[in-house]
Amino acid sequence: MLGQACKKGEAKSTYDTGPFILLNTGEVPIKSGHGLLTTLSYKLGPQAQTNYALEGSIVIAGAAVQWLRDSLGIIKSASEIEDLAAMVETTGGVYFVPAFNGLFAPWWREDARGVCIGITRFTNKSHIARAVLESMCFQVKDVLDSLNNEKGEFLLRVDDGATANNLLMHIQVMTYPLLLTPVDIETTALGAAYALHFFLKMLEEADVPTKEDNIVYKEILKNLCEA
Q1: How open is the CA angle 85-87-89, to the nearest 5 degrees?
Q2: Where is each Carbohydrate kinase FGGY C-terminal domain found (predicted)?
């Protein structure tokens, strides 16, 4: 959350093997009534206030793309899914639920299993590829709906590798319009640089990082990588 500079009432979603959506709830931990977890957001120094968050964890998202590549051989690389899915305008009625290891937030059903329905003789691999992308967005939307029920509407910042897929982000915006993509999608690493900077410089509690600080923190991160 530091990498996206999420303050109270702001949220982020990481799109990787499995998305993790967190909403900063400020200095008071909130117990969810809608299938979410209460977790720590950040604490920037021994005298600083602790920030808490509500979290929705999704176990399978980008991993479903890996499954198309490694188990079905529909694509040769993960990046191919965007062009393949873009060959069709819809899924043709195909729906995919990637519950390979059950469903996490907000359903918490360990007995759930993967489903692909709506297949006809006209279904091709492009329809399946698009259904996989849609399944990622629908799972995120389930968590966002739960967060909306807890705290109302909010701006969602997204990051990590899968956000480079423009079609995926287009589908996600169609389900949740209040979405913002960063210039630098590797903000998790950027957040680690933020935390290091706070530790080394012992900044004042009020000096929460802003987007304009990115140049400084990227230089720190670069030096760390070269060390």
Answers
A1: 85
A2: 12-195
